[in-house]
Design goal:
single chain; about 375 residues; mainly beta; 12-stranded antiparallel beta barrel; 5-stranded antiparallel sheet; 4 helices; globular
Length: about 375
């Protein structure tokens, strides 16, 4: 009986709304149109916190653990005798953790020089749209440390633990230009406490470039390149270049790539890349990332899901959700919705799709309804018992 009364009430009021639909007034100006646009972060510039070797502008969600395995085989130019490098392998295993939406940290261990490494990445600026404080780019700052685990070259001399350490500092500036293309640049400084030769510099400066080009729904082309500006030895070392393909498969991202670098942390691939692409000294490898949600997400009450401005479009009708207030202690939920019939003059960017207007009526059923009228608009105030 209540549902019948609800349908009858809506049907009666829709007659009034149809007669008023000729008015070309903007819905947003009628219902809270003076509100400022909401700031929204741009996400998924890259599908991983790393492009291939280098850090990306992407971050893990808070409470998320990323277990990563980076595997690189031997050089392809070794031919069949070494099965084109597949008989050799170098790897890095790491655990990265999301602390905040713009802060994460990680630790890793590599077989190359038996290095341990750790880093912290923080983004004071995130690319966003809407609002006065939106930004067209993301700025991320990375600081890391590595520790060489190899035996001392000369155990007879006095060796210091600090000689095993190296540090790197990096700023990453990137932008997601479209759903299919992202690009970033990353000036980097690597400091080594101990160098091989007396004339070798302790500080090395490089400029990195990384990008992602989406090829299909689950496949993307990725690349990163680091050009050493200051500190490159005269011979025997080259700038690291890696090219790969990202494949999204359920809960993880699988990446196949080719690279002339053996090391897989910033100190290693920026300062000690010995492979030459021109001579075929390239290694095939893969990166595997598996993400685990350690911190359980808070269950959201259905009323809270309406806490955004959105629209539902169906045959010339749309519903503008104005506001939601949820108070569990009183078991009361309120929302104000505006329904307009006829030509759509403007639709908010975010849309809440409802299959039909009948479905919307079912959402209203079982609630007490108070109706207020404005030209071309119906206002519903719902209270849950």
């Amino acid at each position: 009986m209540k549902r019948f009364q609800l349908y009858a009430l809506i049907a009666a009021i829709s007659v009034f709304a149809n007669t008023a639909s000729a008015q070309d007034e903007d819905l947003l100006s009628m219902v809270g149109g003076d509100e400022k646009p909401q700031k929204e972060r741009v996400k998924y510039a890259f599908k991983s916190p790393r492009v291939i070797n280098s850090h990306s502008i992407e971050f893990l969600n808070p409470g998320t653990l990323d277990f990563r395995i980076l595997h690189r085989f031997g050089q392809l130019d070794q031919g069949y005798k070494n099965f084109f490098g597949l008989d050799q392998a170098s790897m890095r295993m790491s655990f990265d953790f999301g602390i905040m939406h713009n802060l994460m940290a990680g630790v890793g261990r590599s077989t190359f020089k038996k290095e341990l490494d750790a880093f912290v990445k923080y983004a004071p600026i995130r690319q966003s749209t809407g609002g006065k404080l939106s930004s067209p780019v993301t700025l991320a700052l990375v600081s890391g440390i590595t520790m060489d685990g190899m035996p001392w070259a000369d155990p007879s001399r006095t060796n210091y633990f600090t000689s095993r350490l190296a540090y790197y500092f990096q700023a990453i500036i990137g932008r997601k230009f479209s759903e299919g293309f992202s690009l970033q640049v990353s000036p980097t400084m690597v400091h080594r406490n101990l160098v091989q030769l007396e004339g070798d510099p302790n500080n090395i400066y490089a400029l990195g470039v990384g990008g992602r080009l989406k090829l299909s729904k689950r496949i993307a082309l990725t690349w990163d390149y680091n050009h050493v500006l200051v500190g490159m030895p005269d011979s025997g070392y080259y700038n690291p270049l890696s090219v790969g393909v990202d494949i999204e498969t359920g809960g993880h991202v699988f990446q196949l790539h080719f690279s002339n670098a053996t090391g897989m942390n910033e100190r290693a691939f920026i300062t000690e890349t010995t492979g030459n692409w021109g001579k075929g000294e390239v290694r095939f490898g893969f990166n595997l990332s598996r993400v685990f949600q350690l911190k359980k997400k808070r269950k959201i009450n259905p009323a809270e899901k309406l806490e955004y401005e959105s629209a539902a479009v169906n045959q010339g009708h749309f519903i503008f959700v104005k506001t939601v207030i949820w108070t569990p202690q009183h078991s009361i939920s309120w929302f104000v919705a505006a329904v307009r019939f006829g030509p759509i003059s403007s639709i908010p960017t975010k849309k809440l799709m409802i299959p039909s207007f009948e479905k919307f009526l079912l959402m209203l059923s079982g609630h007490q309804i108070m109706v207020g009228k404005n030209p071309g608009i119906l206002l519903f105030l719902l209270a849950k018992d």
